Structures are given as structure tokens and as C-alpha cells.
Structure to design on (188 residues):
């Protein structure tokens, strides 16, 4: 089993420069903080039938953007998750970590868009399924660089970048997280 220190070393090994490593690590640690905060609150909600794996969330949050070193933000940015999945697969990490890389972009990617965008990956849905995958995806969407942004700004971003369907998918993810936290969906 990999721990946080080993995850940071792995991230560093694949980094393209000190500046890139620092930027990805700052972002990943901010995602980790938010994801763990959410997981702890969810785990304290007695109505949840299942507890989230906080160790997994911590490590997976650190590794979720390992593909950024080969695919920086830009035109083909969506591919960083698939490149990261390949890296983690090559490193022999559990498939749970691989799936976080593949599914952490927004609320996931639909097979129809894999086809439409001609992404060089198998045509299928890449949607977060487990509670842990969903919490990491949600936290990642709310962290811009290393700062938390508003729910409204994230909705606007997904609507502008990918269209109303992806905004609705993110709202659905948000509503699930709110239910797990034990509160009615809030949209602020």
C-alpha cells in the first residue's frame, strides 16, 4: 500500500521541472485538504451506511494530476487523466488509483464525448462511481490552482467549456455530496 510520502515522491519523479512539480503539488494538496474535510464530515454523518476510505482519498488526491506533467492545461488538457492513469498502471498501483485519474475531470466524461472528441482511449463512460472517486472529483472541481472557488463559478466553467450537460452532471455530483453530508442541496 502506498502512503502520502511515497505518492509525493512518485509525483516528483514524473515532474517536468521544479516549478511544475510545485504547482501540481500545491493544487493536489489543496484538493486533498478539501476532499479529506468532506470525507471526515461524511464519515461523521450517522445516516451514511458506508464510511469513506480517508487514506485512499489522501493518496489518490495527491496523485490525481500526475498526468499534468506530460499534458499541461490547454487544448488537449482532458488527456491528462488518461496519461496519469497509464503512469499509475505502469507503476503497478491499485486500479482504484487509476480510476481516480480517469474519472476526476468535472463529474466525468461520457462515451459520446470520447467519440466526438476522438480521444485516443476506449469509448466508454469515465464517470466517478465510488463515493471516494466522487469526493475527489468534486473537490478537484472546486480547487482552482490552490484556492477554493465557488459552486457557481464551477457551474459557469463547465457550462462554458463543455456545455449544459456537464453543468447538470456537476450539479448532480454536488447534490450527492450534500446528501452524504446530511444537508439539503445548497447551491452557493
Amino acid at each position: 500500500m502506498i502512503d502520502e510520502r511515497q505518492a509525493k515522491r512518485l509525483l516528483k519523479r514524473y515532474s517536468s521541472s521544479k516549478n511544475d512539480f510545485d504547482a501540481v503539488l500545491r493544487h493536489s494538496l489543496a484538493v486533498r485538504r478539501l476532499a479529506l474535510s468532506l470525507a471526515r464530515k461524511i464519515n461523521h454523518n450517522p445516516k451514511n451506511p458506508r464510511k469513506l476510505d480517508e487514506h485512499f482519498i489522501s493518496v489518490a488526491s495527491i496523485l490525481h494530476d500526475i498526468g499534468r506533467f506530460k499534458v499541461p492545461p490547454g487544448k488537449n488538457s482532458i488527456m491528462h487523466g488518461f496519461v496519469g492513469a497509464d503512469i499509475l498502471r505502469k507503476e503497478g498501483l491499485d486500479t482504484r488509483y487509476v480510476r481516480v485519474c480517469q474519472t476526476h475531470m468535472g463529474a466525468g466524461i461520457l462515451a459520446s464525448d470520447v467519440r466526438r472528441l476522438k480521444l485516443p482511449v476506449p469509448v466508454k463512460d469515465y464517470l466517478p462511481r465510488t463515493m471516494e472517486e466522487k469526493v475527489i472529483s468534486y473537490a478537484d472541481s472546486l480547487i482552482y490552482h490552490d484556492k477554493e472557488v465557488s459552486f457557481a463559478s464551477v457551474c459557469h466553467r463547465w457550462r462554458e467549456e463543455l456545455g449544459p450537460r456537464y453543468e447538470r452532471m456537476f450539479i448532480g455530483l454536488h447534490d450527492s455530496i450534500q446528501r452524504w453530508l446530511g444537508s439539503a442541496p445548497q447551491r452557493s
User: Anything to note?
Assistant: The mean pLDDT is 94. Strands lie at 143-144, 147-148. DSSP finds nine helices and two strands in the chain.
